[in-house]
Amino acid sequence: MTGADGALADQSSLRMILAAADQGRRTVLSLQYPYARRPVPVPGSDAFEREVQRLDGLLARVLGEIDILVVGNEPFLETREEDRDSGRMNTFYEALARHVIADRDARLGPAGRTRLYLGALNHLDRPGGRSAAADRWMTFTRDTPGLDGIDVHPHLGSPQDGRHFLDYVLPRLRTDQKFMVTEFSLVHLWKRHLGDRVAPQFADRYGVPRGARVWEVVRSAVDRPFPQQQWDDFLRSNPWFARNGDYLRRQVEAFRGTGRLAVATYAAVQGAAAAREFGPDSMPWLLNSLFCPLTVQPDADGLLGRNTTWTDAFRALQL
C-alpha cells in the first residue's frame, strides 16, 4: 500500500484480480506494507492516517468483490527489527486489521463475502521465528472475531520443516478459524545446492563443462532459455531436486489433512526480479514456478515453458 498514488483502480494487479473475480474465479488479495528501512507508523500519526486513506480507497473497490483479503504480506520480513521487538509492528497491523474489519462489517456485515485473514508468518521452522511478536500476532488473531484465521509462508530448507508451521499455528487458533498458505516452497533447500557441480551425464549430453556449478547452468538458462527437454533434464539430474519431486503433492496433502486449510496457492510464473544478475548467492525462486518463461523456450504452439515436475503435480491436486 505504501507508495500508492491513490489511483488504486488503475493499478494493473488490482485490475487483474477484479477481472478474475468478475469471471467467477476465487480471489485472494494481500496488503503489503514495506517498512524494512523506515519506522512503522504509529496509530494516530499523520503517516498512519495516510496509510488509512490509501487503504480506504482500496477497500471501496474490493470489499464484496474478492473472496479473501489478507492484512499484511510478510510483516516480519518487511519491518525493522526494532519495530518487531518493541511491539510497534504489532500495534500498526492490529490497528489496520480493526479498521478493515469495521469497514467490511459496515459494508457487508460480518458474514459478508470477503473474508479477512492476518498474514503472514515466516520462519516458524526456526527458533527465532517463534518470537514474542509472533505469539502476540497469534493471540490477536485468535481474540479478534472478525478474523477468519492466519496466513503462513513456509519457505523451507527441508520438506519435514513444514510441520513446524502447523504445530505452531493450529493450537493458537480458535476452533472455528483456519489457516491459509499463499506461498510455500523448498527454496532454501535449492539455495544450499547452487554451488554443487552439475551431474556429469547432464554436462556430457548438453556440452556443459564438467565441474560447472548449478548456479552457472541456471544463469545460462536465464541468458539463453533452454528447450523444454533440456530444462527438465537439468532439474531431474540433480538428486536434491529429483528426490523431492513429490514435494508439492505431499505438502498440500499435509495441509489438507489438518481439516483446517482455507486455501493454498503456489507460484505460477517466474518473476523478472528473481532472474536479475543471478549468481551463487541468489535466492533460486526460479526453480519454484509452474511456468518458466525466463529459463525455458515456449512450445511451438506458444505455450509457456514450464517446470513439469510441478505442473504435473499441480494438475493432479486439482482433481
Describe the structure.
With 319 residues, the protein is an alpha/beta fold. The chain has two domains: 8-184, Glycosidases (TIM Barrel, Alpha-Beta Barrel); 189-245 and 269-319, no CATH class. The chain contains 14 helices and six strands. The protein has helices at residues 12-22, 46-62, 81-86, 88-108, 132-143, 162-169, 187-192, 200-206, 214-223, 228-237, 239-242, 247-257, 272-275, 308-317; strands at 28-31, 68-71, 115-121, 149-152, 178-181, 261-264. A six-stranded parallel β-sheet has the order 1-2-3-4-5-6, with helices on one face. Helix 2 (46-62) links the parallel strand 1 (28-31) and strand 2. The model is unreliable at 1-6 (pLDDT under 50).
| Helix content range | 40-55%
Q: Count the strands? A: 6
CATH architecture of the largest domain: Alpha-Beta Barrel
Low-confidence stretches are: 1-6
User: Which fold name is given in CATH as the topology of the largest domain?
Assistant: TIM Barrel
Along the chain, the helix and strand elements come as HEHEHHEHEHEHHHHHHEHH
Supply the CATH class of the largest domain.
Answer: Alpha Beta
- Name the overall outline: globular
Indicate the mean pLDDT: 95
How much of the residues is beta strand, in percent? 5-15%
Please give the domain count. 2
Radius of gyration: 21 Å
> What's the number of helices?
14
Distance between the ends: 36 Å
The main sheet orders its strands as 1-2-3-4-5-6
Query: Structural class, from helix and strand content?
Result: alpha/beta
Largest sheet: 6 strands, parallel
